Amino acid sequence: MALLNPDVQKQVKEHLGGLPNPVTLHVFTQELECQYCRENRVLAEELAHVVPNKIKVAVHNFVTDKEPVGKYAIDKIPAIAVVGEKDYGVRFYGIPAGYEFTSLLSAIKIVSAGTSELSPSSRDKLGAITKPLQIKVFVTPTCPYCPSAVHMAHRLAVATPLIQADMIEVTQFPHLAVREQVMGVPKVVVPGVGSFEGALPEPQFVSKIVEMVTGGSA
């Protein structure tokens, strides 16, 4: 059974039909597919079927395909790395279903364009980041505010090669939610640095990340 009904397929084609550059969805699964691994793979394949000239899918076995697992730094499944002309560090852990489906579409668009769409002020602030960091955005598929936080994190990843940004679906990785004390979503975590909750507008989101990383005001 298809995951995307005809109406959704039409909307996807309208939304992504004008992509400027090809995007590859690197899907990580395993031979005996984990819970949601099959759905995650099928979702990517259906997107490629709807927009065949601009979206491709590469399926990798998490257990045996060591080279791509290492190359894209994948540490859990199901996972999707959204890669364009270069790898911007845009990742999805857990199937991007519900509201998070829009996050996947948005990620494909900005990776295809290769531009973060951040304001000059935000890009200037990101210049204060001098070391690699990872932004983890914990979400649930029923949270209407979560896609905004995910999209912001992915825009930061596209803006600078020092940032990798992960969407993590908490119901599929409950042990991570416990470890990071996720009591509400969206929760944005920079491991070893700090965290905050809520979907902040661009200026506040960027300032919060820079403040946490540099220990100063932005």
Short description:
The chain is of the alpha/beta class and 218 residues long. 39% of the residues lie in helices and 21% in strands. It is globular.
How would you sum up the global shape? globular
Q: How would a textbook summarize the main sheet?
A: 8 strands, mixed
- Uncertain residue ranges: none
- The helix content is 25-40%
Question: Using DSSP, what is the number of strands?
Answer: 8
In CATH, the homologous superfamily of the largest domain goes by the name Glutaredoxin
First-to-last CA distance: 49 Å
CATH topology of the largest domain: Glutaredoxin
Query: How big a fraction of the residues is strand?
Result: 15-25%
Query: What Rg, in angstroms, do the CA atoms define?
Result: 17 Å
Q: What order do the helices and strands follow?
A: HEHEHEEHHEHEHEEH
CATH architecture call of the largest domain: 3-Layer(aba) Sandwich
CATH class of the largest domain: Alpha Beta
Strand order of the largest sheet: 2-1-3-4-6-5-7-8
Domains (count): 2
Number of helices: 8
Q: On the 0-100 scale, what is the average pLDDT?
A: 96
Structural class: alpha/beta
